[in-house]
């Protein structure tokens, strides 16, 4: 944006962030790959959790956005999902775990976004362990493995579509916008709006997270 403002260079933005929090596009490049990486890791962790009857707190990326945690938790069947956009409490986590145990659930996984309001996964796990002393509690922090790996098919396709339309914009004299995709259609959002107005998880999505995290 500085190049455009100070030197008049035409700029087209393409949303590339695993957090999926830019305004003007349903999905950003890298989000699907990062989520798939996280889900694969959680599936592997679940094997250990089930074989040893353990409770795992798995921390995924997302300092200000819970998209990765919400999608990973729903897809992997986590008993709880802790994201920056939703209030939570240690008591509520313990209640869910105890209800799960009453249903003969011998292992559980809680997905924690790194920006969760209750703190990091280790801090939350310590507090839960202090209350539920008979749980064999472990913590796994996925960290930067979520930023690596081969891009998913969806990421490759949307990157190609966005790249094509970015070039078309420049050829047609359009600039200082971000190319995005909403409802499978191309959308062009002013760069300032794309950066400043962050995409948020909808209330409907938060409701689904609350209901299906079980």
Structure, explained:
It is a single chain. The chain is of the alpha/beta class. Helices cover 45% and strands 16% of the residues. It has 8 helices and 7 strands. The strands form 2 sheets. The chain has a 4-stranded parallel beta sheet, with helices on both faces. Helix 4 links the parallel strand 3 and strand 4. Helix 2 crosses helix 3 and helix 4 crosses helix 5. It is elongated. 35% of the residues are buried.
Unreliable stretches covering 5 or more consecutive residues: none
Describe the biggest sheet? 4 strands, parallel
Backbone CA Rg: 20 Å
What helical percentage do the residues reach?
40-55%
Order of helices and strands: HEHEHEHEHEHEEHH
Strand content: 15-25%
Q: Counting H and I runs of at least 4 residues, what is the number of helices?
A: 8
Number of strands: 7
* Rounded average pLDDT: 90
Which descriptor suits the 3D outline?
Answer: elongated
Give the spatial strand order of the biggest sheet.
3-4-2-5
Distance between the termini: 44 Å
Protein structure class: alpha/beta
């Amino acid at each position: 944006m500085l190049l455009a403002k100070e030197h008049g260079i035409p700029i087209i933005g393409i949303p590339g962030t695993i957090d999926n929090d830019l305004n003007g596009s349903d999905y950003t490049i890298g989000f699907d790959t990062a989520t798939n990486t996280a889900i694969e890791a959680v599936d592997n962790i679940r094997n250990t959790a089930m074989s040893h009857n353990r409770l795992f707190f798995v921390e995924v990326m997302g300092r200000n956005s819970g998209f990765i945690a919400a999608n990973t938790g729903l897809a992997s069947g986590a008993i709880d999902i802790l994201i920056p956009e939703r209030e939570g409490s240690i008591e509520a986590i313990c209640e869910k775990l105890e209800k799960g145990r009453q249903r003969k659930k011998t292992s559980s996984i809680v997905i924690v976004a790194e920006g969760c309001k209750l703190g990091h996964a280790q801090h939350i796990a310590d507090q839960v362990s202090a209350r539920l002393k008979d749980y064999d509690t472990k913590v796994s922090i996925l960290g930067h493995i979520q930023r690596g790996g081969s891009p998913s098919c969806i990421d490759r396709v949307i990157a190609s579509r966005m790249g094509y339309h970015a070039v078309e914009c420049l050829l047609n004299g359009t600039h200082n916008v971000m190319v995005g995709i909403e409802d499978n259609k191309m959308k062009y959002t002013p760069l300032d709006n794309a950066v400043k107005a962050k995409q948020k998880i909808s209330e409907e999505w938060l409701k689904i997270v609350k209901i299906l995290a079980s």
